[in-house]
Amino acid sequence: MKFLLRIAAAIDALNTTIGRWMSWLILFCTLTSAVTATLRYTLDWGSNALLEAQWFMFGLVFLFCSAWTLWEGGHVRIDILHAKLPPVVQIWIEILGALLFLLPACLLIAIDAWNYFLIAFQTREASPNPGGLLWWPLKLAIPVAFVLLSLQGISETIKNIAILTGDRPLPVRKGGH
Fold it and tell me: Which pLDDT belongs to residue 170?
């Protein structure tokens, strides 16, 4: 179990690092939005590339911070019911939820998104708007982000199993870590 917990810790560290770096895109997205609005209203000049860059940054934050949010215990749960259950039952729900729902859904989305990316890459998909950006690079982020979310689901499952086996104490805070 110690080896699996080291793997879980490595996954946690990877997703935390990625999430923290990606969260900086919120600042850049905000600055890009401010620059876009300023240029539009002061100089009557607009840029499809700037608008699309905002969408891309927001999408990257959403995608790459999902695994970090899972680690933090920030995803929506049925808290009203979940909070009233004994801790061992909560942990079993987390394990079964990850194995039956989270991991299969993430892997199906990652596989489908990989094919979606390949088509976009082969056709060199780009914005239909004048001056827009290439779209195919962003589409690579979708399968990568869902693989990272799957890895985090595996990490959370390992940690929850470790709690059930006594190799790890019950969590003090919300989340399963």
Answer: 83
